[in-house]
Amino acid sequence: GQNIDQPTEMTATEGAIVQINCTYQTSGFNGLFWYQQHAGEAPTFLSYNVLDGLEEKGRFSSFLSRSKGYSYLLLKELQMKDSASYLCAVTHYNKLIFGAGTRLAVHP
Amino acid sequence: GAVVSQHPSRVICKSGTSVKIECRSLDFQATTMFWYRQFPKQSLMLMATSNEGSKATYEQGVEKDKFLINHASLTLSTLTVTSAHPEDSSFYICSAREESTNYGYTFGSGTRLTVV
């Protein structure tokens, strides 16, 4: 089966940096996704990692280590609108399997 | 970019009735679509994989006779919740595979189902 772990909740201050970790175990792995989801809405694509290393995209960066089954999402210069759930998802053959999600609260 | 349209966005139905949710790929053909369910403050749980022209593949614990999936064309998959009960109230989201956008997975906007 698949196992994806990420923290349930995190809090951070506006303007700060926060790192959300994700560990996974799965077969048929092709890549790892990070999504942002606001309550009652569909998830929004943030990043995709297939090779080891860091992918940077504006204020968001994502890192992957395939050998360690580990990824993190780094959010810089936090804004209030970044308060949302962040979902780590891994491919299991052609399926996309989600972790439980991390609810991030950004405070002034 | 690839767009997936999901309807309805919200539906309220009485216990015992059936509800159909549609998922359409607007500008691409999707041989595979996925149906997820999300309860409040929980993550997306994969229910089934919908394959065009063949039977859907259901995840363990999902009742195939209760959640009927039809993928009759390359642009349309439907999920019918049969004999709905209040515990079926949830947020249902579909996803379609399109290789050129978002590395393959595009999501619909979701359907909020409330069974009263």
What does this structure look like?
- The complex is a heterodimer of chains A (108) and B (116).
- In chain A, 0% of the residues lie in helices and 59% in strands.
- In chain A, β9 and β10 form a beta hairpin.
- Chain A is mainly beta.
- Chain B has no helices and eleven strands.
- The chains are: A mainly beta (108), B mainly beta (116).
- Chain A binds chain B through residues 31, 33, 40-43, 45, 48, 85, 87, 94-101, 103, and chain B through 32, 34, 36, 41-46, 49, 91, 93, 95, 97, 102-103, 105, 107-110, 112.
Query: What is the count of helical runs of chain B?
Result: 0
The overall average pLDDT of chain B, rounded, is: 92
Low-confidence stretches of chain B: none
Pair with the most extensive interface?
Answer: A-B, 19 and 22 residues
> Biggest β-sheet of chain A, characterized?
6 strands, mixed
- Termini separation of chain A (Å)? 41 Å
How many strands of chain A? 11
Quaternary status of these chains?
Answer: heterodimer
Distance between the termini of chain B: 38 Å
Q: What's the SSE blueprint?
A:
The complex is a heterodimer of chains A (108) and B (116).
Chain A: E1 3-5, E2 9-13, E3 18-25, E4 32-37, E5 44-49, E6 53-57, E7 60-65, E8 70-75, E9 84-92, E10 95-98, E11 102-107
Parallel strand pairs in A: 2-11
Antiparallel strand pairs in A: 1-3, 3-8, 4-5, 4-9, 6-7, 7-8, 9-10, 9-11
Chain B: E1 4-7, E2 10-13, E3 19-25, E4 32-38, E5 45-51, E6 57-58, E7 67-73, E8 76-81, E9 90-98, E10 104-107, E11 111-115
Parallel strand pairs in B: 2-11
Antiparallel strand pairs in B: 1-3, 3-8, 4-5, 4-9, 5-6, 7-8, 9-10, 9-11
